[in-house]
Design goal:
The complex is a heterodimer of chains A (379) and B (267). With 379 residues, chain A is of the alpha/beta class. Chain A has 13 helices and 16 strands. In chain A, helix 1 crosses helix 2, helix 1 packs parallel to helix 6 and helix 10 crosses helix 13. Classes of the chains: A alpha/beta (379), B alpha/beta (267). Chains A and B meet through strand 2, helix 3, helix 4 and strand 10 of A and strand 2, helix 2, helix 4 and helix 9 of B.
């Protein structure tokens, strides 16, 4: 019997270890607070396992480089924060359109613009869904703990490989810089991208041969000689102006993620069984909200906490299922109201939704949030 | 020599380029250089950005990545870093490489990463129908410079040489033999190579500037070019053809491979 492995890790450190466990062998990045540790640790660890690290000349270039690396069949990741996430958006769209699996870590800091570089915030939630132009699928995982930073990074690679699409791993500065004890499992499922049969050189890189919306992906350099473009393209990967082919492509890109949205979407619940007052919170705020829910229960208030673990797709059906006893949904978040928009869309007026917004660059403290939640309940 | 058509995707024809465009001449030189070296076409990747010239990989039978505007080099850098065994060739234009992609160009030169870049310089943004580029000569006309361009031009060989590229040359669509030879030497160089191919755009540059049709523009290049002599660079007055840099320096991916070996990462 093997001993349980417990590590004391920082969130960003756990992210790199999870990436290596998932098989990351390429990282390109650019220095930016509060994600720089991810680049630093990658630069130390990757060459030791035969992987490669490169610090590019800017954020745009590092996004481009990970896509290029992935085209050769290598699992690749980049990491950034606010301004850098904005700069990466065009090439994230390229990865959506060209269907290139990559993982993009974005550690949220206070914005807009340069904002407060070392202060936590949750202001980029909608950017993770609609940051790049045009219709496109989006998968975004949101860890609330250091252990989840490790495990969700593995899952981010798995989902990107499975769906041949970029996956965003996003959280706030608190989770990225926090240190916690992490008990790791012995085995994690690791998913590899589908490939065409060896030597099948009549390969069509964008033909949905399995009917799951995800065409197999060949690596460059093995004789397939295939063409990939960010232009709207046919099943052979060549640019087309055909209205039918364009619509078919965009609908398939949406379908490949949408069809499994309920399976991809995850969440956690705390004291939710008969909850009348439902807190919905993510990232570091969910940690504070858990304390608040527990204290409210101790004081006789039937409170519970629902934490989305995937922001996109949002765990929509699960949230609806958990609102049977709800009188009021309360959404505390470190911005001026973003998560609340998605919650309101799902609740659709079945009960009242109240926002507790904080945009000072500070995290919620338990007493502070308790008083605000109690105040909202008392109204 | 193999039939050059063996390297082409004939089923992709007709191409999108205008009559008289220089792009086909540059592709011909590139294909003959690849053929002369016997490069393994299974191990050769073409990368391009956005613009007329960047459509070239779509007509050629290789693994190909047609990327975002100006970003061909960082995509190519990821490919070359992740699999250094691949021959990586970037085809770009003057707007793509020198304006929006200018920062990537100087850093690829600085790293001396083993990528060969052919920049087709037609002095204008052709795909968007004739705006001035960083390589539109001062005084010339463009849709965004109808009063005459007041911008000064980059001299790409000087820029790339100063930034650290180890092979730098310029030829033109008139100097086809030199163009093929320079691309061939660029492909042989283990490091970053930049070959500027001075080209013609009769549709958007020639017509507006009253330079005549394609044959007249070829003649214009012939009459206005001179061979490079050491220490003489008169870019503003003449098109200087020749090899400007040909030296040996450590190559980036090789240096990284040595680091991996030192750390025992190669197992």
């Amino acid at each position: 019997m093997s001993e349980e492995k417990v590590l004391f890790l920082q969130g960003n450190e756990a992210c790199v270890l999870g990436a290596l466990r998932a098989g990351m062998r390429f990282f390109a990045g650019y220095p930016i607070t509060p994600s720089s540790e991810i680049a630093e640790i990658s630069s130390i660890e990757l060459p030791k396992v035969g992987g490669r690290f490169i610090q590019m000349e800017d954020e745009i270039a590092s996004m481009a480089a990970v896509i290029g690396a992935s085209m050769t069949g290598v699992k690749a990741m980049t990491a950034t924060s606010g301004p850098g996430f904005s700069l990466k958006q065009e090439n994230i769209g390229f990865a959506c359109m060209a269907e290139v699996p990559v993982v993009v870590v974005s550690i949220m800091r206070m914005g807009p613009s340069t904002g407060l570089p070392t202060s936590p915030a949750q202001g980029d939630l909608m950017q993770a869904r609609w940051g790049t132009h045009g219709d496109h699928p989006a998968i975004c995982l949101i860890p609330s703990s250091v252990k989840e930073m490790y495990e969700f990074t593995i899952r981010a690679f798995n989902l990107s490989e499975k769906y041949r699409t970029p996956v965003i791993l996003m959280t706030d500065e608190v989770i990225a810089h926090m240190r916690e004890g992490v008990k790791l499992q012995e085995n994690y499922e690791i998913i590899e991208r589908k490939r065409p049969a060896p030597g099948a050189f009549n390969y069509q890189p964008f033909l949905d041969i399995d009917g799951d919306g995800v065409p197999p992906m060949a690596p460059y350099g093995e004789g397939y000689k295939f063409h990939v473009t960010g232009l709207s393209h046919d099943e052979n990967g060549f640019a087309t102006n055909s209205p039918e082919k364009n619509e078919k492509l965009l609908k398939r890109l949406k379908y490949k993620v949408d069809k499994d949205a309920e399976e991809i979407a995850t969440y956690s619940e705390y004291l939710m069984e008969d909850a009348e007052y439902v807190l919905v919170a993510l990232g570091s705020v969910s940690r504070t909200a858990q304390n608040v829910a527990r204290q409210l229960r101790a004081n006789g208030v039937k409170a519970g906490l629902f934490t989305p673990k995937t922001l996109w797709p949002f765990p929509e059906a699960a949230l609806k299922r958990h609102l049977s006893a709800a009188k009021l949904v309360i959404v505390p978040e470190l911005n001026l109201g973003q998560l609340v928009l998605e919650v309101e869309r799902i609740v659709k007026g079945s009960c009242e939704v109240k926002l507790i917004a904080k945009a000072s660059g500070e995290l919620f403290k338990t007493d502070e949030l308790y008083n605000q939640v109690a105040g909202v309940i008392g109204e | 020599m193999n039939n050059t058509l063996e390297y082409m995707r004939e089923n992709r024809l007709p191409h999108i380029w205008c009559p008289g465009c220089g792009n086909g001449t540059v592709i011909g030189a590139l294909i003959r250089a690849i053929d002369a070296l016997g490069l393994d076409t299974n191990k050769t990747v073409l990368v391009s950005g956005i613009g007329c010239s960047s459509r070239a990989p779509g007509y050629m039978k290789f693994d190909a990545l047609h990327t975002t505007h100006g970003r061909a080099l960082p995509f190519a850098t990821g490919i070359k870093m992740a699999n250094p065994e691949l021959n990586v060739i970037v085809i770009s234009g003057d707007g793509d490489a020198a304006a929006i992609g200018g920062n990537h160009l100087i850093h690829a030169c600085r790293r001396n990463i083993d990528i060969t870049m052919v920049i087709i310089n037609n002095n204008v943004y052709g795909m968007t129908s004739g705006q001035y580029s960083p390589l539109t000569p001062t005084g010339r006309l463009a849709t965004t410079a109808v009063y005459g361009n007041i911008d000064r031009t980059f001299d790409l060989p000087s820029l790339c040489g100063a930034a650290g590229a180890t092979y730098v040359a310029r030829a033109s669509v008139y100097h086809v033999a030199q163009l093929k030879n320079y691309i061939q030497k660029g492909l042989e160089n283990k490091g970053f190579s930049m070959i500027e191919a001075v080209s013609i755009c009769p549709t958007y540059f020639g017509r507006r500037n009253k330079l005549g049709d394609a044959p007249a523009m070829f003649n214009w290049i012939k009459e206005n070019s001179t061979m490079y002599k050491q220490g003489v660079m008169e870019y503003d007055k003449q098109i200087v053809i020749g090899e400007f840099v040909n030296k040996k320096d450590p190559e980036y991916t090789k240096s990284y491979t040595e680091l991996i070996e030192k750390l025992g990462g190669n197992k």
